[in-house]
Amino acid sequence: EPEVTQTPSHQVTQMGQEVILRCVPISNHLYFYWYRQILGQKVEFLVSFYNNEISEKSEIFDDQFSVERPDGSNFTLKIRSTKLEDSAMYFCASSRMIEAFFGQGTRLTVV
Amino acid sequence: KQEVTQIPAALSVPEGENLVLNCSFTDSAIYNLQWFRQDPGKGLTSLLLIQSSQREQTSGRLNASLDKSSGRSTLYIAASQPGDSATYLCAPNRDDKIIFGKGTRLHILP
What we know:
The complex is a heterodimer of chains A (111) and B (110).
Chain A: E1 5-7, E2 10-13, E3 19-24, E4 31-37, E5 44-50, E6 53-57, E7 65-68, E8 75-79, E9 88-95, E10 100-102, E11 106-110
Parallel strand pairs in A: 2-11
Antiparallel strand pairs in A: 1-3, 3-8, 4-5, 4-9, 5-6, 7-8, 9-10, 9-11
Chain B: E1 4-7, E2 10-14, E3 19-25, E4 32-38, E5 44-51, E6 56-59, E7 62-67, E8 72-77, E9 86-94, E10 97-98, E11 104-109
């Protein structure tokens, strides 16, 4: 069964560094999303991406964040100058407009 | 702005019971609604999808209903088992954005 794949599963980075979280969506899907979940809190929407551009973003998704679909299969989230409060689980999702499927997440720890 | 509320926040019951998890949302102009399961430290597994034109969906022991006009959905779990222990998340979808509630943390006692 097709699935959304995220790498790495866990990343530790120093405060101020840049990180890139990677996702391979399901191959015939058209919509792509990033969400985050701070430990013990709810899953929060960051951004949605369609037709090679951002279609929606939340107030969390500020200039520190960017997304890219560098080729036909990958979808990345870049976080510049990481802060301690960026520590969270980051989930990628994809859909063909109806049902969304989520990856297993990347746990980002900023130290 | 879509707000999603799930009641109860936590539930601990002996196995075998039938359960009802409630979800309400403020913006009823949704495309569809999904119910997800999340195990501790893990990803989100889609359980059921109800499209906006549908009233309910069933998968095995799970049944979800949707009343879009009143902004409510209910997840019914029949004959609960210890393996059902997880957090259940309600997620209405509108305008390319799925918004999650805080979830119901379910613990089924053997």
